[in-house]
Amino acid sequence: MPKDHSLKLKYLLAILCLMPYAWCAASQAGFSMAQALQYPYTSELVSAERGDVIAWVRTLDGVRNVWLARGPAFAPLQITHNGADDGQEITQLTFSPDGSRLVFVRGGDHDANWPAEGNLSPDPASSPVQPETAIWSVPLTGGEPVKLAEGDAPAVSAQGQLAYVKDDHVWTVPLDGGKPERLFFDRGKDGDLCWSPDGSRLAFVSHRGDHAFIGIFASRDAPLVYLAPSTGKDGSPRWSPDGTQVAFVRRPGDGGPPQPVLKQTPHPWSIWIAAAGDGRGRSVWQSPKTLAGSFPDVEGGANLHWMGDRLIFLAYLDDWPHLYAMPASGGAPVLLTPGAFMVEHVAESRDHRFMIYDANTGTDSADDDRRHVFRVAVDHGAPAPITSGAALEWTPVGAAKDRVAFVAAGAQTPPAISIANLDGSHRVTLAGGEPPADFPVSQLVTPKRVIFQAADGVQVHGQLFTKGDSTSRAAKPGVIFVHGGPPRQMLLGWSYMDYYSNSYAVNQYLAAHGFVVLSVNYRLGIGYGRAFHHPEHAGFAGASEYQDVLAGARFLQSLPGVDPTRIGIWGGSYGGYLTALALARNSDIFKTGVDWHGVHDWTRLMDGRLGKPDRYEKGDRDQAMETAWNSSPDANVDAWKSPVLLVQGDDDRNVPFQQTIDLARRLDARNIPYEELVLPNEIHGFLRHASLLEADQATAAFLSRTLGVASQ
To answer: Which of its termini does the chain have fewer beta carbons within 10 Å around, N or C?
Structure first.
């Protein structure tokens, strides 16, 4: 597909200065970027509520397909046969409770911060036919997938009824095909659909701007029931096992005096239970009004579950995101997962006796930069490992009564599906997930866990990628990698997020081609406790996390075999912001950089965080705007000297494309050397393999040209 890329070369003098280190790809023993990206990626793992069957999405070279495996043998079977790198997501795999049918969503952008104008689905392949976000169904008894309707967020009842969301309303369509129809009218923007255990009633969230209700739909002949309506924002409805009550999370609605922007304040929340019949409810737990008691901004939020007579939820009450259990009737919560680690992806075992989860802990001290799978009994705690070792495992689901499925990877081996007993025995990796023969598994390095200290004393973790014995070779250029998010954590192997598996592949490629790479897990990231996740004066409130990036560069400069005068930096999203900030503040250290869709002027985004300035009370808004500007790369652009490659898709729904336009104009005005790689119609997390390959190759080539790699 031809792309209208504007390539602007302004750094001839910089290139000439680096000619003694001219990069020669032909002289490098290694592999191509295309080979580095030829890893199969496994995601979207789900299981049926009652049938012994699992399903997942396997992506190779941008081609996405759905696979499933049935117990007891769990032999993998491909059930879709897409053959194109068309950039259309496959997400939200959902079984009917009995496991007889699978539905999934094809298309859309499910990581966007805002919808596109007109709610258009992404078109990264520049198709002349507008793509759509649609729900598909496939019977597991045999047959081809069938498109049911345009829509999203499917939920299948025990009675076989499919509900889904279209244009913020709830619709239904027969699972075997038929005419879609709107299920009911509600004045809000509806979502978070959850069927009762017997499939007779549907709980949903009615989002109404500054507040939200939990609603119950029973039939078109009965009025909707709203559960304990208030001025709060309610969410995460969960049915009691007998289907008579619903538990949900309540947070304060928008209102009151302006909250401080530059000072952290508690964000309390509570758990409520209400009768599904008449909506009467009561609070069964209230968080403490402390920073640690704030609503957990982690994967799954509160991760609320109703198991037997207990409610299970996740909270930061001991400064780590952990699981707690409490009686559904109310009472003090009991900590289920004590220790200095984070619980991340959470699911129920099939027999409802255990919570199964992944966490960054284990017997090895380096496990804080890995993930392993555990189980914990909901009635008495006592966590036990299901997996351990130098590999990584994540996103567990109950595959059968006593078995658990999860995604497993290593430092070299890409993600694939594994199954084990709940006690960790009889672990097997399913066939069908192997990489192509020319994927360079044996040439990938094992990243080394390193810890260094920022100027203010904060300990920072990183992963060091280096090939061979650096002490016996000519000095190499160093590259800092900074992840996005920022609530992310790079690991000692492949990532459970496709965006960061791509970053991992690029860092492996750079290490194999003459660079030493340090991936920095800066503060604001997850995995190291609440204070690290929520530091003071970070981001637009002061950019304190930049100290960690700078400390990483100085650590890299200090390593034997690294040329301290040739340090570059690259990253995407929030990592793009930190890349631009590094070049703007410290071109003396960072000699070049690649900025993927970064934020460059915080002040242009502050209305989205603070609301429009349409009230008399201002709080610390003016001071916050000044701090946000001073925390922006644009504020320091006069000191920017180093060349930079700017990369972004112009249908970005997370960081406005205008942020890159704005920076380019400022660099123009100051004659700062830069290049652009613009991907028409691509979104923030590039959907096409071709887009990733082009951006990755441009990243490596730019770093090579501007830093140089000595011939070996």
So the answer is: N
